[in-house]
């Protein structure tokens, strides 16, 4: 049992799980656009997410020599460097437009994570910007990159779908924000800290309804499947509170896009 927990913990803490969630959203984008998959975009989403998330999580600890004494940490370090190399390779295969989207997403991630204006002035410390920057960077990687890579015409429908992806990620982030209340310092001024847990949930419900409203406007062929998973997210949001286990978000909530894509693939065969 202990070995199983160690494997699951490594799977989560090495960012493999969140990377699979990113891949699932990219694949859902290709499906929603009715285009073929681009393997380099999917690979970049997976390996780029591993590299970026691990840099964010472990860069502050790398300066400590003790960090590398742990075999687990060394393995995460090797995985991260390898993932970074593959992401760079995928990046070099693209046209300039796709590279620009990836660079903008990277800059948003760096701005969110690190201070460029002195101590305590990274994007996450700007009141109200943390969740916005995360949702925007995920929208760029999981939606705009597939759009640009496949040279999809930017229409009103495409813009609505981009906004819909932003809304979805923002709603999911509401769950993370509530769970993280127990860890976030007061100076972060996160959403639950500013408006309270209950109002954060209400905002999440509104965003989920907005997602379904966009589905109705564009007459999505997947509206019933989308409704099912939006209800699941609403349930997770309803039961979220600051005392929940880390697995509630880092495993179960991040699994939703993966099951969403698997369900869509299953229905395409019937």
Number of structural domains: 1
Beta percentage is: under 5%
Stretches where pLDDT is under 50 for at least 5 consecutive residues are 115-123
- In the CATH scheme, what's the topology name? Farnesyl Diphosphate Synthase
Mind telling me which CATH architecture this is? Answer: Orthogonal Bundle
- Rg over alpha carbons: 18 Å
Average pLDDT number: 87
Write the element-wise H/E pattern from the N-terminal end onward: HHHHHHHHHHH
Largest sheet: none
How many β-strand runs?
Answer: 0
Q: What is the 3D form?
A: globular
Question: Which percent bin holds the helix content?
Answer: over 70%
For the record, give the distance between the C-alpha atoms at the N and C termini, rounded to a whole number: 38 Å
- The top level CATH class name: Mainly Alpha
* Class from secondary-structure proportions: mainly alpha
Feature tags:
Farnesyl Diphosphate Synthase; globular; 270 residues; 76% helix; mainly alpha
What this model shows, in words?
With 270 residues, the chain is mostly helical. The protein has a single domain, classed as Farnesyl Diphosphate Synthase. It contains eleven helices and no strands. The protein starts with a helix and ends with a helix.
Write the layout of secondary structure elements.
Blueprint (H helix, E strand, L loop, with lengths): L1 H12 L2 H17 L6 H24 L8 H22 L3 H18 L15 H21 L6 H24 L11 H5 L1 H22 L4 H16 L7 H23 L2
Helix pairs in contact: 2-3, 2-6, 2-11, 3-4, 5-6, 6-7, 7-9, 7-11, 9-10, 10-11
